[in-house]
Every structure is written in structure tokens, then in C-alpha cells.
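Data deposition worksheet. Section B asks for the primary sequence of the deposited chain exactly as it was used as input, without tags or linkers unless they were present during the calculation. Section C holds the resulting structure in C-alpha cell form. Section D is free text for depositor observations; keep each observation to a single sentence. Incomplete worksheets are returned to the depositor.
Section A, Depositor: J.P.
Section B:
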Amino acid sequence: MKHIKNIFYLTFPLFLGIVSALITRNSINYNTLNKPPLSPPGIVFPIVWTILYILIGLSYYLYKKNTYTNKTEIFVYYLQLFLNFTWTIIFFTLELRFLAIIWVLALSISIYTLITLFLQKYKPSAYLLIPYLIWCLFATYLTIGTYLLN
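Section C:
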């Protein structure tokens, strides 16, 4: 049973990313949007997100393995996964660009909070989330820029 939990912790973020991509795949119009400067080509996103989802899962797995996890850490972890999962749907499928700005800001805050919580008990798990926070801050810039240009 413990092995199943470990596999879950490692793979759940990647699973959510795949499901989110499948839900939004027919509605993504990234190439037709007016994009802000520094916007990467569309092919970059699945590569970066795959790496980030692996880091998120590894971070949580190591954290669970090496510390006692309290309800606050568990809540913030799953909250940021929920915000991450639903942002793509809000931005691409529903095309609610202003709401997507608020959503990605909430996501960035939740990631920062999670890093802060993880730093208190197991620093390696916190460090694994830093690229995720940086990418989400960049996604915030892209979301705001796309909103203003479209």
C-alpha cells in the first residue's frame, strides 16, 4: 500500500497536467493570440510543464517521506494543484482572460506559501518548487500581456 501512495505522490501532478491538456486541447488558440514580448513558441509549454510536474511530484514525495505533513501543508499543496489544473481551462477553454490573471496570481501565491512551509521542515522539497514558482510568475506576465493585447 505504501508503494501505491508513493507512486501517487510522484505522478499525480503529471496526471493532472495530462488531463488538463486533454480537456483544453481543442480550444487552445495560442498561435492566433496576440502575445507579449518574450512569449515562447507553443512547443515550449508542454516540455516545461512536464518537467515542472515531475519536480512538483518529486518535491511532495520527498516531503512526505522525510517529514510529518500537517493539514495546512496538505491543503496548500492540493490547492495549488487545483489552481494549476483549472487555470488552463479558464484561460483557453472559457477564455476568461481577466479571471485567469487573478487565478494565476493566486496560483503563484499558493506556490510561494508552499515553498515557505516546506522550507521550515525539508529544504530540498522547497528548492524543487522554485522553478515552478519562477515559471508561474512568467505565466503571470504572459497572462496579463495576452489579456491586454487581445
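Section D:
Residues 118 and 126 are 5 Å apart (CA to CA).
Residues 2-149 form a domain with the Ferritin fold (CATH 1.20.1260.100).
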